[in-house]
Amino acid sequence: MGVLERNPLTLQKLSLSAGLLFSILIAAQGFDFFYFVQQWPGSFCDISSSCCYPVTGKPAPDFSIHGFWPNNNDGTYPFNCDLANAFNASKISDLNGGLTTHWPSLACPSSNGESFWQHEWLKHGTCSESILDEHAYFKAVLSLRGSIDILGALQKARIQPNNGMYSFTSINNALTNYLAHTPGIECNSAANGQNQLYQIYVCVATDATTLIDCPILPQSHCSSQLLFPSF
Ligand SMILES: *[C@@H]1O[C@H](CO)[C@@H](O)[C@H](O)[C@H]1NC(C)=O
After folding, report:
1. Which protein residues touch ligand 1 with a CB less than 6 Å away?
2. What total number of domains does the chain contain?
3. Which domain of life is it from (predicted)?
């Protein structure tokens, strides 16, 4: 104590690091909302790094799950919150059919999806484990996928994965009308350089169920006209 009193700089340093530690603890345990992210498989496969179909074969031409990501209102997000909470495939074996259909991995080499689900659980899922255990997390994601039909909503607005060009505005309007909330729309580049529709971010409250207005939208990288490639 005497040493600290004689050295105010040390005290200042101490309280600074206590504050930092506190922020890290808060960041590791709390978050404001989820991004439910779906991807268009055609836009994952026609990029320069290409893709590999799952061992079960080519997935249906439909949006598939990329992830369910705890996020903060300021755009930051917690990740790798509890690497000790290992992914255990047998805890979600009853969900295997739905996961194989709606959450396939298109990464190379071909796989049955388990390593993708494990990666997503460890990086993102463990950050919501105070609310959802592993089974509840994957069940919540499948249930959201079951109630949100992005492709159906686009097709109703005559926006089809037919290698056509569509305006960002028409895609945004179709999805905003359907969801009653504006989604995040992310584009990437096809191997030929064409800007294309890649991922849709739907914002979900921390109950893992209720759709909300996005507190912050992800980077879009979209041009005013986008390719919607076939798959
Ligand atoms: C994985 O989960 C199953 C079913 O809950 C359980 O019996 C098993 O002990 C778990 N394995 C590990 C390594 O925790």
Report:
1. 88, 90-91
2. 1
3. Eukaryota
